[in-house]
Protein 1
Amino acid sequence: MKDTTHHNHKQGFAGDETPSPAKPPLAKRLLRLAIAVFLITGFIYIAPNLERLPGGVGETITIIRESGIDTGAWYYDDVEQCFEGMDFIREKRGMNR
Amino acid sequence: MAENGNNDNVVTETKVSMWKQMGTTEDWWAIWLAGLLFIIAVFCVFTWKPPVEKMPEYRATMNQEMEEAGFRTIAYTEAESELNSIQARREGLTATVHGLTDRPKGWDTNPIRSLYMGEEEAAAKRAEAAPRLEAAEERLAEARAQAEAAEDAARAANFENPELNAEARAAIADWRQARSAHSSARSAATTQAYNLIPSLIVLGFVMMVFFSIGVKFMNINLRQFYTGFPVIFALAVLAYLIANQATLSALGLSYVLWALLIGLIISNTVGVPQFLKSAGQTEFFIKTGLVLLGARILFGQIALIGIPGIFVTWVVTPIVLVTTYWFGQNIIKVPSKELNITVSSDMCVSGVSAAIASAAASRAKKEELTLAIGMSMIFVAVMIFLLPLIANVTGMHPVWAGAWLGGTVDNTGSVVAAGELIGMEAMYVAATIKMIQNIMIGVIAFGVAAYWCLKVEPERACGIGEEPMKFTAAGALYEIWYRFPKFILGFIGASIIFSIMQGAVTPDWGNAMVSDGILAWANRFRGWFFALAFVSIGLSINYRELKEPLRGGKPLILYVCGQSFNLLLTLFVAWLMFMVIFRDITDQLMAGA
């Protein structure tokens, strides 16, 4: 088989499909979907109860939630406290003057 | 150039001219579209300009007050507040577009609150918050009177009496706290009804049209793209909605994880129809998001904490990265170099953002990126609790602890949350260290792309048992240029342009016009593009494909060993820098605490 392409390396994120085996019947697939949706919904439903966990864990979650910090943000410009931190450092180091 | 010795599976490379690539590949279209977004943002920000001419006056007041008193006085605080309220994103069309890109809001028990709140409920909330506002107003007036009295006494002594200064500082800190409580009570007491659904529909449509420009030129079936995109966008909204549940958000379970999970569930249960696959242009979304991310890599911020900050981030991090990658290749022998570099970058640079950049630069498989991000999120959720606990129990100095957290915890939001559990100074130092480390993503992405072009790709291109292709001096540059992932140029280019722009103006002007103007748009759109990308990744992965890179638990061993080394080395270097060699900087940061 000869493949003509302008990339000779392996394909990235989107292009490495592997042939999938025969699909199970629709009813079975829908059942699997329903179970997955049920599990995720259940997890989200019980999530607030994680704040009742013993050993200081629940208390810590509550402190973080009440602080309003976006803990899931993964880059600094999504986190307000980073800009406050910059101001704090600049001020303490006399960089604003 | 034909480079695969296996006779039945020869991959022949036909060179495509650069001009053609510029019009037909997602790398270039990511640059064009991100560039278009920046141009529109610059136009709006300069057309609907905030009152930047007032800023020097506020800054002069702040400087004068600081010069006289040596601490934040009442006039300083008020001028600072006025200064910070000058933001281009609050003006004209800039504000409209910024509002359009709103993400679903936070919620506790009712997910509908994330998208909709009726007038009746808003009125009930306002009524409920009214007594709190009243109490906050009283408290504010009282704190203000005390702060004024204490400041006047200190001023009367020309701020030369340490006792009066300390009293004034404490009273003003109390007033500032009362201001903050009042502000929060006021926003609760002025709750407005909202309905994000229409604006989300418009946003989805705008993004569909935006990406369809590139899709058309990239020869992707436009009709299928138009059919599938709304579904992918709806799933991205769902990912944001779940991530904004208050407790899940506190645990750091970000929209990225939910987007992947939602996509994975669909693709592994009911399956993904062709039109959805056509719309799920993972690389296109991710690369456009990365070019926008580049604009936030501002090199001028590197020196914020001086040499100790640079050591903890720009010296320790590369050492850990190279050591972990070497360990993965030579000791535990991770089967895929791309998986190795993606996990290593994710673990030691800055979590999700570094993983995305490294995976895109090395052309890692989507399941490799998924695995790296999944592991990172699980470990981060543990580290948020464990590291502050260690710091508090052992009585670590807040600056040292902050530097340790900033250098090791993967995602910025989690770093700040962990810092909050130690104290304000620790939180601010941690946030700033992480931000300086974030800037390294540009260098890492460029380095990984260059290494893959020079070393990994030529090795892969040669036949089995053959020596890797040797570049001639004349051909080398051309080959590197040809193979180099071009979107990295947009990524680095955006970083350089915005770093120069930010460096050429005053910090206040830069904040008002660039950070809180042009880049505020880039930030919002970037988040949506990545949400689309991660839904698309989930939709294209079969869970069996996830098992392959996990075989033997090697990525897990890599992550645990690399992170342990990172924790120990950062702990030592942060101590050496902040507690021994540059103790003066630590004392500066703690002054008045």
Note: Chain B touches chain A through 103 residues (CB under 8 Å).
Protein 2
Amino acid sequence: MIAPTPTPAPAETRPHLLYVAWGFPPSRGGGVYRTWATANAFAAAGWDVTVLAAPRETFTMSTGIDESLERTVDPSIEIVRVPFHSAAFESDLRRWPRSRATAPELWNVLSSRRERKSFPERTYGGWRSALESAALEVHDGHPVDLVLGSANPHVDFIPGHVLHERFGIPYVMDYRDAWQLDVFSGARLSPEGSAVARWERELIENAHAVWFVNEPILRWHADLYPARADRFHVVANGYDSPPEPTDRMPSDQGLVFGYVGTMSAAVPVDRLVAGWRLARTRSPLLAASRVELWGHLNHAGIPNEAIARQMSTFAENGITYHGAVAKKEVGAVYTRFDALLLVLGTGRYVTSGKVYEYAATGLPIVSVHDPGNAASDVLRDAAAWYPVADLEPSTIADALIDAADAALDQTPEARATAREWATQFQRGRQLDPQIAALHTMVDDRRRTEAAR
Amino acid sequence: MNIVLFVPSGAVDSALEQLAPDPAIDRITVVSRSVPDARDGVHAIVLKPALSALTARAARALGGSAAGRNLLRLSPLDPGRRFSGAARHDRELRARLAEADLIVALERDGILAAWKGVRRSAPVEAKAVYGIAAARTLLAAARD
């Protein structure tokens, strides 16, 4: 990340950001790098930052944690852990009723109806009242200049809504995903007139700005809310620090292909395995090569059924699973690889965060995802990108073989050039202009209020 | 600690790596439908839920679609229920549960067997959780 120029300012003039992120470190869940980087970037730019987040225990007892990430949160940031209770995060089996143990999926559906009473969001809706109280308490103790909510969960937008309604404080909505749009299928999830649709319309109506992670998601929302589209911005993900350069020399005795990321049910690991098996029958180099998979097996810390089925075939195909990797270790993990596997769920709105980090390695990348994914837009001009036209095993096998040849041929100079090309994806290049604009807006508001 | 892991698929290697049990003080029992993928320092109890050829075919047919799988989950053919049924009659497992300090369901199909095992056979002070993260946290707390 480009380090923003620190803005030394007396405490009374520093703007105060209330940042709402349920999944703040030590969470290791999806989107946590963005929340971590955003809070740190505001602090580095001279803001007082208060974060409203779920308690540590929520993560230690469910999704797991990344303490290395927590240790790199700017020490000036105040973190308020807001009590959070949801049946979905109850891991103590002694507290489970028989009906839940017997039919967990059905029980979850019925339970979610109760949780949606106060806010229309499964699992997280019940957090609304605790968030409202926490936001009001923070503002009472240290007046807030701006609220930034990071969704999902979308209940994170509530503090901005409350402080805007009561005190006119501006708020920004940061969509890491989308609320009404299924980014995989492209379908609208909530019909017009539904509680979700009404909430989103009202929130967007009053927002100072709305951030989206890519252009296709922004355009979808601009079509839905054309009168507010001028407030929409793409604030793409990016990489936080470049992975360590490596002097590793690919060997024609066998290569290492790597995947780093969460393997959720949407990630087509089965397609990758099918393509990889076929490639090994076609290419002696691939037959001597290996695949290393690094990351969590699903978001909730429980392996999804699809990956559990695939794992029994890993050993015979030269595939090894290495478990989760802490943020501080990610750079070192990339030095083990000769080429990378970008395996993503299908959807033209899907970018993923790891595509930027992949690009920053300078290594050849095989895209095992629908060619229409937004991730393709990121890599289109990359020097060593091997996309597939479809997810048939034969197509994937061809791409793997091409990438293997490219990895063997890649010179250190070519890799350095690829790394230089990817510097455009540093996260700071996305965040810093937005933060500067918000700083100006807050200063202008303060001057206007002082003049009254 | 005496730790009992319910892992129907038998894919327990990664979980054990994360739990990092101490062979000198921890005794691990893995309860699965097939031979576990990690055996060093592990006591395996392999359960074979009885299933007639006809019901096995019906279960396979239902498992081919999302709607079918949901229907299957609510029926007696649900893999979790069948695994639990097999666990109920295993004397060795009951003995292990009676000495357990920590019982963990690592997969969805292991939940019911673990839940019933806790109620029927485990000491009242034994902890019982779903998921590797909770198990790691409890294990770390017990060692502190």
Note: The CA atoms of residues 3 and 102 of chain B lie 5 Å apart.
Protein 3
Amino acid sequence: MKKTYRLENLGCANCSAKMEHKISKLKGIEEVTVNFFTGKLLLVVGDNIYADDQLEKEIEKIIKKIEPHVRLKEL
Amino acid sequence: MINKRLIQIIGALIVYIPTFFLSEGTPLQLSLYVISYLIAGGSVLLNAIRNMRPGSFFDESFLMSIATIGAFYIREYPEAIAVMLFYQIGEYFQDYAVNKSKRSITGLMELRADYANLKINGDIVKVEPEEVVVGSLIVVKAGERIPLDGVISEGTSFIDTSALTGEAIPAEVGIGSEILSGCVNLNGLLVVRTTNSYGESTVSRILELVENASGKKSSQEKFITRFARYYTPIVVIIGVMLATIPPFVLGLGTFDTWLYRALAFLVVSCPCALVVSIPLSFFAGIGAASKEGILVKGGSYLEALAKVDTVIFDKTGTLTKGVFEVENIVTFNDVERDELLEMAAYSESHSSHPISDSLKRAYGAEIIDKRIGDVQEIPGLGIIAYVDGRKVVIGNRKLMDQEALSIDISNDEVLGTVVHIGIDGIYGGYITIADEIKTDTLATIKELRKLGVTKIVMLTGDSNKAAMKVAAELGIDEYYGELMPGDKLDKLEDILNGEGKGKVIFVGDGINDAPVLARADIGIAMGGLGRDAAIEAADVVIMQDEPIKVVTAIKLGRRIVGIATANIVMALGIKGIVLVLSALGYASLWMAVFADVGVTVLAVFNSLRALKRKG
């Protein structure tokens, strides 16, 4: 399943690289890219691995640790 | 955000400059230092405190804060201020560069119309393009951008398609013409029945493609993010060891001396220059490409373009116009040229074959139906028709033989598609019909060779003869004709498995060749707008029907990779040298600041060169 999110207030390129690395370690993530310039997070995740918004919660946890002021928004 | 930073920078400088004129060590000078430092670096300090938690040890703000507080501790006040000041200046330029390249990409976003004039029960209502359902009627006034794809149901006009195709000459459209969103209606009033929802429209597909372009990262981008993960911790740990081991364990020099050297390590430890500039080069490259009408689906394809040594072209519609034209008329037995063409055009006038269209176009004058008598179509052979009461036999050689018309030429003399014509029992001659080569095709082949592309191959479903003719005209050494769509894939596999070390491009028009586009290292769909399968399968979409853009794309790829490589070498080189010098005590914090911020600014500006068209 393909998903697209917007990362609002993404501040530093290194942080977005860190986020990308951490998110890629989550269960069932096949592909992930964070584009610092467009503020977009694109990922491919296996079907039926996360219930409801479990995945979003996991991603938010990662983001908050790296850049607390960044907001995640699904597109 | 940028302005706030600029105020910080200027404010800190205003407070800092008077310290030059004050005597050393006075309380006034010290307080000015502290104020200047806080103006420049207060936000960094706050950020560091806010983000403080286990694992944040290697954050940029934290490292900058520690480094400058350390500098204060050893009474290097100007250095502490300079580190913060230059850090802010670096961030300022970085923001500027990022915004600039963002704008160049979002320049494409201007393709998007802000509203659609929806026609409901005779009224016209302005709505968001997203709200318009497929099959609705919309009104596009002169000067407005077409919001959705559709078919014109009323009106005629000229439309400017340059944003989509780069074509400067406006296209004339009328009832029944299909028009694409993103074009501009130049003069008439058009009523359009929409054929796609906004999400499916040409505009949103282009925007999505470019916006999500960074999906496929280049190996240089991947290298940098991996490198950054190890670089900072390693440099910081060496810095800590440098501050502690020599003075306390080895008993060499004072703690202050070594701390000063270690602070330089903290300043240099940020991988920003690379982490920002390398992806920025590719992002800007994708932006520059889209300005040229070349949509690249990711940095990895720009990188692959730089390493191309084989280009495979589909013939029809890619190297050639895909439109048949009369090329040559050869007459026999005292038949006039014009007469031969006239008879051919008349007898073929009821046929829907592309060849008959080309004959009619070449003839030019109107066909007067009553001149045509009985017409008999003979499948696989041709047509026998009566024109002005004369019996015209038109078709292939077999038909001529069957009608006992003697032909004095051998089969091999004539290349391309041929129609023979007999008039009243006498062989009148033949007309050759060929697909015209595009005007920029020959230049494309020459330029590709100049760029060092060693292998240029042409594939086509056409006859071997037709293939040979085009190949000879273009100087293409390798060509394969009479290929079924599946055969093209096999040929590509052969080439991919061959000895060439470089990347392989396949250029096609996206009709019937989606699997080949997908399989090639780089699949380039040309003029692929409106062909979903082609856009989906291709890695690069060239919006104009111009093969020369393949050359542009390769040049651009090389430029971008060159810029990225230069940035990597420069940043790592300067940082490496400054690290060694400061460990040995030869470098000041000023040099460290340059190695960090200066290099970032240089690298970012170097990346911005990617936005420029040529050079």
Note: The mean pLDDT of chain B is 86.
Protein 4
Amino acid sequence: MNSLDDFLHLVTDEVGIPVNAEDARGDLDQVAGWDSVHLLTLLTVLEQRTGRTLALPDVLAARSLADIYDLAVTA
Amino acid sequence: MDAATPAAETLLDLHRSGRLAARYPEVRALLDGLDDAELVRAGRLLARLDVDEVRAAHPDVPTVAVTVTGHGTLAPLLPALTAELARHGLLLHARLAPFDSYVFDLADPDSELYRAEPDLVLCVLDPMVVFDEVPVPWRPADVARVLAEKVDLVERLAATFRATARGTLVLNTLPLLRRHTAQLVDLASRAELGALWREANARLLRLSAANPSLVVVDLDPLLAEGSPACDPRLTVYAKAHLAEPLLAGYAREVGHLARNLAGQTKKCLALDLDGTVWGGILGDDGIDGIEVAESYRGEAHRAFQRVAKQLGAQGVLLTVVSKNEAAAVAQALREHPDMTLREDDFVRVVANWAPKHDNLTELAGSLNLHPDSFVFVDDSPFECGLIRHALPGTAVVQVDAEPALHLVKLLRDGWFTTRQLTAEDRDRAAGYRDDLARQDFRQSFTSLADYLAELAVEVELGEAGPEQVPRVSQLSLRTNQFNPTTRRLQPQDVSELLDDPYARVLTVRSRDRFGENGLVGALFLRRDGDLVQIENFLLSCRVFSRGIEQACLAAVLRHARAGGASAVLASYRPTAKNRVVADLWPRHGFAPAGEDGDAIRFRHDLHDIPAVPEHIRLTDRIGVDAA
């Protein structure tokens, strides 16, 4: 996962929810079909992919996909 | 993404292009080639599908309605459950109950859970059901008290479920976590906690013995395979108290239960020989050269043979489909001093050089079964691929060059899972061997009439009692061919019919000169004013074409007339597998009487009642007013 684009592909293919760059910047509540359970799936997948452990309280508090991407790449 | 297999890649393509719903019937075969991790990923994509869209596009795909309730966050179970059902060609129609609502859902007969009338209710319990209510500091006695309260509560909820719902309730045992045991610093208390925890789990497991609506999944064997029970972060931050790999294992068990309820339990195990049942190649190594005991590989194959024998003793029909010389195979099974499986353990041994899918199709036909009822085990990727391609409904267990893992791979899935074993299960293999003798006997006659006359068929028609409930339910779940309406009945459904003053359940037993066939059929009747409705008529495929159905219908029609009925009604709902009964009703004097949805209705006016065939001796144990 080298870019925000890669990250959005991962959300689309692994979580099953198609998202684009606009969705990434907006509030998670505005992403069609998104709910908190998808966040858990995404966390699991991100940790598997990056081999890093993410700070769950920070990720759970994130308000947008772009925020989560930043947390994942800086973890 | 780095999809590992072509099947996973294809699924992803279908998902990306939005064609997954339209191509749903292909999903089953695609899932067959995935490993466990890929299966979970596929489940996430499938769980996003609109069930109504899939149903609209493919009305023939059987749907299983499942409500998931319980204590913690359970949404992570849905992808695994979706994938496990899809593996069996079933479509999951899931309803996730609100968080931690299981007590309200199950205690109130008016709850949304009951109104939805699901086929299955999964009430997923976790250790926090107990520890959320244990005070700090705590002693084992505190845990014992909460455990007792919770098991009492669950027992009451299960009783309400039984009285209210017609589906099946699934509970599970509670994993005991080190994060709890290790809080006790003295080993004596730790041992005490371990003992009382397991006593509570044992109580949970025993609840199902007295409650036919209940199944309790034991999570311990899944944990013993190395599945982590809980993710400490997700339990704290998300109240998801059971780890995803454990939920995936649980979903697999539920998938096999769902398959059983949908009437798709496998009946027959077809084994390859060289490299599967024994080590080595019989044709090259000879009887003395194949490995079935004593050597390293030999012991691994012996362990596998013992598992096959164990399954065979519980009603699974064992067969061989092998590319070998028939005479050499017969000799090896008969004469090898260390062989565990013998000729007698198999209902059929097919050893020749014909393609295996042709052999399997023919074998299924000779047993009056569909290839979908088979589990095929082979160490050759070529043969496995051939069967997957030619017979997509046959389950394929692909073993490899490590024979110690053969039994693990065979048992990884509960292909033969059934609710309760019956006497018929234990005697099934012997019954099929008797059938072989019947076929040889048949070939010594020039006409079917002569044969039937000499076969000396006896049929006993009786009233079902509580002790026949498991077998009658099993017949309704296993019988796909002689099943005019394919209405599946779980044990509690049969019990309800026995208690229903307007319903009657009749049992059909048969025997002949070659032995007992056991309880081979059932008739479900309903009285409605001066009409008698035959709601269904089941007959085991083993006893087709002997006039047994005519004898039974003759008796039922006679009783209906004697009891003052003006007509007897019946119906036929066509499926891919029940064509054998398409003309059952007209053949016995029923006239077409319109259609009812996808069913064709028939009516018998009771003027011209067929006779009991001359070659059958009918013992009629049902009352004069029957029906």
Note: The CA atoms of residues 30 and 38 of chain A lie 14 Å apart.
